[in-house]
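Bug #77: duplicate submission created two jobs. Keeping one. Sequence:
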Amino acid sequence: MIDCGEGTQMQLRRSHIHFSKLSAVFITHLHGDHCFGLIGMISTFGLLGRTAKLDVYAPVALEKMLQEQMRLFCNGLEYEVVFHAVDTTCQQVVYEDRSLTVETIPLEHRVPCCGYLFREKETQPHIKRDMIDFYRIPVSQIQNIKAGADWTTEEGEVIPNSCLVEPADQSRSYAYCSDTRYIPTLHERIQGVTVLYHESTYAEDKIQSAEKYFHSTARQAAMVARDARVGRLLLGHYSSRYLDENVLLEEAREVFENSFLCDEQMIFEL
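Kept job's structure:
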């Protein structure tokens, strides 16, 4: 989960996401709309009998506050909450497992803030089942073939690996750029990601407000997407002044056509 504002628990229920599925929370910065829901969610997990640990990645200033909140409201938790302080000033891997890595993305906001870049690790190629059956290749050799090995038949014929496998799926990536003013060099950190979420608080007529409050316009978000050559751009974090956010979408699509508005409960396939 990225950020945890008020209403997070209700949204989890509406989305039919079981609470036990959540293993890590990545907080971008310490403004209430991004972290006020965290302590309530931690408490609810305890009431539901959670036993698996929960990892929380966030700017260092949250650690002391979270510890004090847990001391007051979450005595007797039967699971561990592990806090990981992140450095919002540099890009570095803060999480890794067998399938993906998560990197911080330095952003510029009124308080220390970072985004997160999720990268899927390269997968192995797909076996051509008909070729495996044709050459009677034993199951014990499948992993070697996925790793690039050729196959030699009993007659001594060498079957090239390219005849036995299909190319692996292209690795996917998702960059989440939370509250930030426009950073002309940001595209260098997120080149070629599959999907980019970038805040788009204002339209161009409010660019002075964007600069003052360290936010971005939809057009600026699209400039980042264009320069980074991303696959898709997701817009969000709209100012409440816009009763119809399509004005933001239109401005973004003038620069980057493959732009989309985000809304609650929407699902985007990577």
